Amino acid sequence: MMKRNLILIGCMLIFNSLIAQELYTPTPENLEARRWFEQARFGMFIHWGASSVLGHGEWVMNSRNIRVEEYRRLLNFFNPIDFDAAVWVRTAKNAGMKYITFTSRHHDSFSNWDTQQSDWKITNTHFKRDVLKELAQECEKQEMKLSLYYSTLDWFRSDYPYETGRTGKGAGRTQPSDWESYFAFMKAQLTELLTQYGPIACIWLDGHWDQLDNDTDKEANSKIDWHYNELYALIHQLQPHCLIGNNHHLTPFPGEDIQIFEQDLPGENTIGLSGQTVSDRLPLETCATIGSAWGYNMTDRAHKSVKELIHLLVRAAAYNGNLLLNVGPMPNGEIQPEFVSRLEKIGAWMKKYGETIYGTQGGFIKPQEWGGITQKEGKYYIHILSRPQGDALLFNFPTNVREVTVFDTGQKLSWVRTKNGLTVIDLSDCPFQEYDTIIVAK
């Protein structure tokens, strides 16, 4: 009987989820924004705030068990005198990125704009300036889309349900939490962000996982009701085109417009966060770091090479997804030079090969050990990231192939179609490149 009841409950939950999903009807503006997002393929993530002063990553408050009253002193030290929004946007643009996702507020609750809902904000530092306002203006000037990361969990405020959360335990909070107060605070802040800073391409939420016991049980229920229906309705009402993504590491909830994968490509799960089902209807995005940390970490030297980053971008596109590549600016407001140099080289590569990434769809097969495929307008861009054994590739193309050429030179490559319809491409005469050898089948 118990087993039968559990099955019945499971069926009801699935049914309710499907009904709720049908209740959300994206607006024409939202659907157009989704199409733009899928074509963009490459964006810049920016993790930055008062935590950068400590040079130990964006999780420093939690990892070092810094109490609220101690952490608040960073207001007196965070003074990013070298911040220049024009440089940030130009750096992203030169890298070939089409949008920026900026941390308006991270888990430490520090607000990077002149919010009226809290005094724990950048305009109360010695710097005093509203960096989000400057960034929004510069994005508009340089025709760069702006998205905003917003943390739904909080290590700083006492009204957040920290008692049931699994992080922020060392912040020294003793006052009982007040979920309704905290939810009202989030709604008020999101209203500010969506009414005072121009068009926002996406609201990128993060923190749901704090109210789960772990990241492995994809069927677990949150310990609090996040009121997502109300929160998502507010966002879509204020800016109908604005996309919603939630980094909860789960199958998308009703009302969400993109699916996010953290430090993993869609369908892969190398670090244990992304074992969720991959959506076949929503745009996909992988967020990843250049180094080991998201926020500035002065001792982080494990930086991905230009080759590794280009491979990550190519494989993301071959999975039909975007790459949101992170930088963590230093406390003075400058992006680390070792990040800038990598982005410049990626930008030079994108100027030459962007056609094979922008506006493409994922290939008819998933990425393989040798590389992956992107496609558009009757062309199949075959990205060879690792030279295959035997100098040959075999495909079952969904359409008839007339010719196969090297993207760089137009050189024709030999190929044959077998009796069972498979196409074998001979790569023995193909000149291989340092990062990615691209051949075109059409």
General description of the model:
The chain is an alpha/beta fold and 442 residues long. It folds into two domains: 27-362, Alpha-Beta Barrel (TIM Barrel), CATH 3.20.20.80; 371-441, Immunoglobulin-like, CATH 2.60.40.1180. The chain is built from ten helices and 16 strands. It has helices at 2-23, 28-40, 60-63, 68-71, 85-94, 131-141, 179-196, 228-238, 306-318, 337-353; strands at 42-46, 99-105, 145-151, 202-206, 243-246, 259-262, 284-289, 321-327, 361-362, 371-376, 379-384, 392-395, 404-406, 415-417, 423-426, 437-441. The strands form three sheets. An eight-stranded parallel sheet has the order 5-4-3-2-1-8-7-6, with helices on both faces. Helix 5 (85-94) packs across helix 6 and helix 7 (179-196) runs parallel beside helix 8. The N and C termini lie far apart (59 Å). Residues 1-21 have low confidence and may be disordered.
